[in-house]
Amino acid sequence: MAAILPDELLSSLNDSIACRELQIQQTACLLASDLFSPPNLVLHGTEATGKSLTINALLPAIEAKGAIVRSKECITTRHLLERTLTEVTEVLGDTAPSVDGRCESISAFVVQLRRLLEGQKKFILVFDNIDRQREVAPTLLPALARLGELVHLSHTSSRRLIELTRCS
Fold first, then answer.
1. Contact indicator for 5, 63 with CB cutoff of 8 Å
2. How far is residue 66's CA from residue 59's CA, in Å, rounded to a whole number?
3. Distance CA 13, CA 21 (A)
4. For the CA atoms of the chain, what is the radius of gyration?
5. What is the distance between the alpha carbons of residues 124 and 129, in angstroms, rounded to a whole number?
6. Cα–Cα–Cα angle for 28, 91, 4, nearest 5°?
7. Per-residue model confidence as pLDDT tens digits over 126-153
8. Three-class secondary structure of residue 154 per DSSP
9. What does the alpha-carbon distance between residue 167 and residue 149 come to, in Å, rounded to a whole number?
10. Does the global pTM surpass 0.85?
11. Residue 158: its pLDDT value, please?
């Protein structure tokens, strides 16, 4: 597999995250900004094996715009959706368009997220521990699984892509 990351950066990540060289390289290949990426990527595995640690270290290393939402800190679906919009707005900074912080439904969330990401080529959105969400609506996980499609399809001329990464 060709290295996406420079050798010194790869070495640094491998030193800080023991025994995860292959996983770091594979994830970097899937998320690299100059390559096509899948609209969804699910990282799943045994608890406490370094999935979140790897993603948290890898996002800055590949210099990708992305937000990490700690799902288990959110009580309701509305809280999760509003927190996600806040995280995305903070990452985009001054370039982010103004959006209403309130989000009553997944449909409203998609509309606001679409507005926020207008003109972005790629944005990686990580829902950490989404499977541990406290009060989850039955439609939340299926909607998040299609989030990349829902945001991307409405503006087919735009080349942006949303990555949904769930770490459980």
1. no
2. 7
3. 8
4. 16
5. 16
6. 15
7. 999 888 888 888 888 889 888 888 887 4
8. coil
9. 20
10. no
11. 34
One-letter amino acid for residue 58 of the chain: L
Residue type at position 105: S
The continuous run of DSSP H or E covering 144 comes out as helix 140-145
Q: List b or e across 102-127, with b for residues whose CB sees 16 or more CB atoms inside 10 angstroms.
A: ebeebeebbbbbbebbeebebbbbbb
Residue carrying structure tokens 């790897």: 54
Mean pLDDT of 74-102: 89
What pairs with residue 40 in β-bridges? Answer: 164
- Tokens representing 152 are 């991307």
Are 108 and 150 in contact by the 8 Å Cβ rule? The answer is no
Written as six digits, the tokens of 14 are: 């491998």
Sign of CA pseudo-dihedral 72, 132, 69, 118: negative
Using 50, 70 and 90 to split pLDDT, how confident is the model at 7?
Answer: confident
82-87, long-range: CB < 8 A, 24+ apart: 84/109, 84/113, 84/125, 84/127, 85/109, 85/112, 85/113, 85/116
- Which pair of tokens denotes residue 69? 């939402």
| Joined tokens for residue 64 | 């990708």
The one-letter amino acid code at 26 reads: Q
